Recover the amino acids of this structure.
């Protein structure tokens, strides 16, 4: 049975889903019964939009409708494999896949999907399983060249083979496959989604702009799809668009929580964080502070690891980007949060201590940061950069030469890391910090070079633009001053 569905016409889903939901358009021929198709196709669409929990619920409805619907168990299992995020839930995936034993009808092609899923949820180390799964999906993709779902699931599997490192060759391979799907079906949410992920760095982001603008319209009901264009907008320094997309994503996630009766950990904290970062880059600190207040409340009331981690991200970025070191903000409870949150909070607190003249507190934060970095070196490649940054700051006043050596080492280390997406980590980019130090030592020409390197990695980042402008003023570079004035036009103005 071939079914083409635009999820704007569903009225009878058992899973709570509004009748006007838009998640994209796919074709996925399968041997399941007609009465379970809406649930199954909704699940596939939700998976492509990374709404995994809702996808699992939709697949469950499909096999509850017909317990012999084998591919519904495949879908539920695969919702627990999340390659872009580097996550899996092996027990849940295995439990769901066991239901395939109830299947009464499976085509050869469907067995290919299921056999591949058995690899990813099989025995062995995660890295090996994920690579072998991707290899199996490649075979399925080549055996069925007209199957856009095989192409899409193969494309996304390739993200899982990189170890969460931006491997340009692999990313461009993903883009080429996803673009073929897009050309066949420009409303395919997976094609649009994976193209954005392929291009979400400052070098390739211009290639992803048209997909970013389309994706949020094609899948306007998926909170993650509303957020995803921001990966391109942020990489290009398009701050108004960055804020707008994340407002849409936040509001969509709030509507979902209300519809499904979910708790605070299902709120769109990711979008809230990126939204705040956009406001900071526009100099709209009041609006950024309002967003920080939201996560402060949830971190205090719920106290979950997720809320406290996002509190660390947002509080540290707010302090660093506003340079309002004397603000009395709710402290971070960093117990058990991830390395990025822990490192960001330690750097912000260390910087605050330096800037307010509390050398003893800064030394304490540095000691804690060194210990943490040593113990958790495998959790983030950027932790050693954060250590070098704080070391350099502490040396700057009395030993400027040694300080610059530390900061140059941090910048060199940062330059070797792959381009990323999203708000920076370290929360204070190393090249920007080096530029600040050089400017303070009256070396504006060198500072200008450092700020330009920062902007190469983080286009239109406000503090780097302002630093480059100040350095250009000191060297008499009027053309650069004018260019920075144009880039900073509107900074600190406007209301949401």
């Amino acid at each position: 049975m071939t079914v083409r569905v635009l999820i704007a016409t569903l009225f009878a889903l058992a899973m709570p889903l509004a009748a006007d939901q838009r998640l994209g358009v796919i074709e996925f021929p399968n041997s399941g019964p007609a009465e379970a198709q809406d649930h199954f196709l909704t699940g596939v669409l939700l998976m492509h939009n990374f709404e995994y929990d809702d996808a699992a619920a939709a697949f469950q409805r499909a096999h509850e409708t017909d317990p012999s619907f084998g591919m519904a168990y495949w879908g539920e299992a695969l919702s627990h494999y999340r390659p872009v995020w580097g996550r899996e839930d092996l027990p849940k995936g295995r439990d769901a896949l066991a239901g395939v034993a109830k299947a009464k009808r499976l085509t050869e092609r469907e067995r290919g999907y299921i056999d591949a899923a058995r690899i990813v949820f099989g025995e062995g180390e995660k890295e090996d399983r994920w690579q072998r799964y991707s290899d199996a999906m490649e075979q399925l993709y080549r055996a069925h060249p007209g199957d856009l779902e095989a192409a899409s699931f193969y494309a996304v599997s390739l993200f899982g083979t990189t170890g969460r490192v931006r491997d340009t060759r692999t990313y461009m391979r993903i883009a080429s496959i996803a673009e073929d799907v897009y050309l066949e079906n420009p409303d395919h949410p997976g094609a649009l989604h994976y193209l954005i992920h392929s291009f979400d760095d400052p070098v390739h982001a211009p290639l992803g702009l048209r997909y970013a603008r389309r994706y949020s319209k094609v899948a306007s009901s998926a909170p993650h799809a509303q957020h995803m264009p921001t990966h391109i907008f942020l990489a290009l320094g398009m701050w108004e668009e960055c804020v707008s997309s994340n407002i849409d994503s936040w509001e969509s996630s709030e509507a979902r929580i209300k519809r499904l009766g979910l708790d605070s950990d299902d709120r769109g904290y990711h979008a809230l964080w990126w939204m705040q970062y956009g406001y900071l880059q526009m100099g709209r600190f009041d609006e950024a502070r309002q967003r920080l207040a939201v996560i402060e409340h949830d971190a205090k009331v719920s106290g979950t690891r997720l809320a406290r981690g996002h509190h660390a991200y947002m509080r540290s970025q707010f302090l660093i980007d506003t340079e309002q070191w004397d603000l009395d903000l709710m402290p971070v409870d960093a117990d058990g949060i991830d390395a990025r949150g822990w490192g960001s909070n330690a750097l912000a607190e260390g910087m605050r201590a330096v800037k307010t003249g509390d050398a003893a507190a800064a030394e304490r934060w540095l000691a804690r940061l060194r210990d943490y970095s040593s113990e958790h070196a495998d959790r983030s490649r950027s932790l050693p950069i954060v250590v070098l940054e704080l070391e350099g700051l502490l040396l700057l006043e009395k030993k400027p030469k040694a300080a610059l050596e530390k900061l140059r080492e941090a910048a060199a280390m940062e330059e070797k890391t792959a381009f990323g997406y999203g708000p920076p980590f370290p929360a204070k980019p190393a090249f920007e910090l080096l530029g600040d130090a050089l400017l303070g030592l009256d070396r504006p020409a060198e500072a200008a070079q450092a700020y330009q390197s920062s902007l190469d990695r983080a286009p239109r980042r406000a503090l780097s633009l302002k630093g480059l402008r100040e350095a250009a003023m000191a060297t008499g570079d009027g053309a650069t001053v004018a260019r920075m004035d144009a880039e900073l036009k509107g900074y600190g103005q406007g209301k949401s």
